[in-house]
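[worker-b] picked up task from shared queue
[worker-b] task type: protein-ligand structure
[worker-b] ligand name resolved to zinc ion; SMILES cross-checked against name lookup, match
[worker-b] sequence length check passed
[worker-b] input payload:
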Amino acid sequence: MTAVLNVLRDLHRIHQQLADIRGRLDRCPKLLNTAQAKVDAANNAVVAKKADIQQLQLAAKEQELVLEERAAKIRDRQARLKECGSNKEYQMLKEEIQKEEEANSELSDKILLAYEAIDQQQEQAGSLGNDLVATQGDYETTAAQVAEREASLKIDLERIKTDLQSAESQLPSDFVGEYRRITQAKGEDALGGVSDNCCGTCYKQITAQMMNDVLTAKLTICGSCGAILYPDD
Ligand SMILES: [Zn+2]
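[worker-b] inference finished, payload out:
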């Protein structure tokens, strides 16, 4: 009688260990996914920053073209100044040249500021690149740790499965059918240790008759949660 109760207690412990190990194995790929998501985010930040820089560089180049075209116009007008026939024409050209020079001076300031902004963005890109390298390093570390953990958990899992088979082989034949059915459906909740007349799995009270059955090692199933009951000491 005690032997059966001990087997049930062992089985419950083993099923709890199995659930724990399976839960830990399930978390392994999640840890890897989290590390990979950080690498992806860091990589996206680098790509986005590079695209921003490229846009700024294109805009600066366009402004430089405008600057050069205008400088060419100024040179052209300066040449015409020398061949100018009338004073009025001379004044007009002079004014045009002045206007274009002012515009170009303003534009070169803008271009200078644009290149300063590009330098800043490139510094940020550098720091984002460092972040990316760091997250890649973290990923490698996590991957190595996860692989080690998985290998060790799988060894534990095999050992506990062997324990399970050995404990199951000691179950009396009249327990086997219900035990199989309930463990398949409920896993670690297939068994419940009774203490203070309460099922340890659902915490509902059981009757005195059931308690008596539990203590005399009769197959007793909790009316509330369907667990096979054993006395928890
Ligand atoms: Zn219960």
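[worker-b] attaching auto-annotations
[worker-b] The radius of gyration is 40 Å.
[worker-b] releasing lock
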